[in-house]
Amino acid sequence: MPDLTSSRLPLLRLAEFGFRYRGTETPALEGVDLTLHPGEAVAVLGPQGAGTSTLARAAAGLLGEHGHSTGVRELRDDHHAGMLGDDPEAQLTGLTRTVREEAALPGRLLGLPLPECLERAEAGLQELGLAGLAERALDTLSGGERQLTALSGLLTLRPSVLVLDQPSQALDAGARRRLARSLRAFRDAGGAVLLTGHQHDDLTATCDQVLFLDQGRPAAITPEGARPDQRPLDQHGIWDARRAPAVQDLGRPGPVPRGEVLLHVRDLSVRRGSTPVLDGVALDLCAGEVTALLGANGSGKSTLLGALAGLLAAEPGARITGPGGVELGAAPAHHRARHLGWVGQDPGDQLSASTVRAELVRAVPLGPGGRRLRRADRVRASAQREHQVEQVMQTAGLSGLGQEHPYDLVPAQRKDCVIASALLLRPAVLLLDEPTLGRDAAGMRRLSALVRSFTTAGGAVLVATHDRRWAAEIGDRQLRLGEHRPSSGHA
Ligand SMILES: Nc1ncnc2c1ncn2[C@@H]1O[C@H](COP(=O)(O)OP(=O)(O)OP(=O)(O)O)[C@@H](O)[C@H]1O
């Protein structure tokens, strides 16, 4: 990055900036003023649909051919902006095999000499705590490890302005601290940072200013250097992940005798490659309870959920018993799916239809006889299925999105689509992998309500999350994975 410290000229300036996507009538952004000087960091927060991701792309200069812009966007001569997008499934290029290759790729595409690319990649990986994973195949990484790999690649380009859309997604507290340190060093060297998203967290809290967006328009801005307090965050629909948990707000009953055990697990050990990731996990999921699954990036949360769903093989000796004592240890995944609804970390892995409605219709079997139903029964079963789909779309906040392609939805809605599919099979247990990613305050409330209504109806939920506030609010119990040794305790 060129030396910037001597100058107070802005690195990036948006003035009266507006943008309208092609084929739409309402502008996604209007009248946005934003200036980033060397050393500064600004957060732009808004509820889902407020235009924060569009603003991130505009700042990074990536909107060009997608629509029509008005006003001014100026990036200082000889400088460039780099951006990490909000879709965890689209952050890796798919062109490389290992972490080192992926981190070095952006430089190679720029035409930098290979040794320099590798040197920069090494430094980026070191800084973000990934040096030990340099040789790892990308398809073996956990969600947080993937996100940090993408960020290391971006850092090798040495941009002057870093634009990060919801960068804390999927990161544990330690990784967030490392990232905050690395952004501080980046700013001290004269760079500027723009963070966008729907949540206030440890990273947005390090910014000099917070600009709130509402329906594409600036709604408020905090005074420089002041931290936003509770009121504007609530007013603008932002989920405050740093707030102390408000357990009483959820109307959770006090300690009650545990309900029927719906999933009983003992001696569950799983290896990934040659690495032992889970070692003798024991847990009981009971009717009416939410168990929050916590642990650092790479501690094995997705591995545990995947092994319970029958998607990853457990070491011999594991005992897994489902509702009513049904033996699941040797059952294949499609058999377990009748009892255990698995919603994995990457919703894209579980979506295959071209519309949300088609995806959900496909999830429901058409009566016990399937295609062999008589015509009249089939008509009745289809109408019933339509009704079920309609209802679940409402519960999951997908009303009005039935004709959308799942990949046109934002990541949180894509996850809702997979949650809805799982609910349609009426499982006794829901296994949710990081369902809070990318949600604003209303999205978090909807998720809490959905989880609670599932347990109130007698189900059990095991949910992996890095959001400690939400874990404390929703979890009746907590199971913490760490150092490959699980420890469980009550919330
Ligand atoms: N084939 C493999 N070989 C070696 N290690 C692997 C393999 N597959 C996964 N791992 C490692 O297993 C560990 C557990 O991964 P998992 O995805 O379960 O973690 P997680 O707790 O869900 O993490 P995150 O919070 O980042 O999503 C990670 O360190 C991951 O890199």
UniProtKB/TrEMBL annotation:
Spell out the Gene3D superfamilies in the cross-references.
P-loop containing nucleotide triphosphate hydrolases (3.40.50.300)
Name of the protein described by the UniProt record: Energy-coupling factor transport system ATP-binding protein
Q: Which SMART domains match?
A: AAA (SM00382)
Q: Which PANTHER family match?
A: ENERGY-COUPLING FACTOR TRANSPORTER ATP-BINDING PROTEIN ECFA1 (PTHR43553:SF24), HEAVY METAL TRANSPORTER (PTHR43553)
InterPro entries tied to this protein: AAA+_ATPase, ABC_transporter-like_ATP-bd, ABC_transpr_CbiO/EcfA_su, ECF_ABC_transporter_ATP-bd, P-loop_NTPase
Molecular function (GO) terms listed?
Answer: ATP binding; ATP hydrolysis activity; ATPase-coupled transmembrane transporter activity
Q: Does the keyword ATP-binding apply?
A: yes
Annotated ranges, domain ABC transporter: 12-240, 263-491
Tell me yes or no: is Repeat among this UniProt entry's keywords.
no
Q: Which organism is it from?
A: Nesterenkonia aurantiaca
What is the similarity comment for this entry?
A: Belongs to the ABC transporter superfamily.
Q: Which domain of life is it from?
A: Bacteria
Which key words tag this protein in UniProt?
Answer: ATP-binding, Nucleotide-binding, Transport
Q: Under the cellular component aspect of Gene Ontology, which terms does the record hold?
A: ATP-binding cassette (ABC) transporter complex
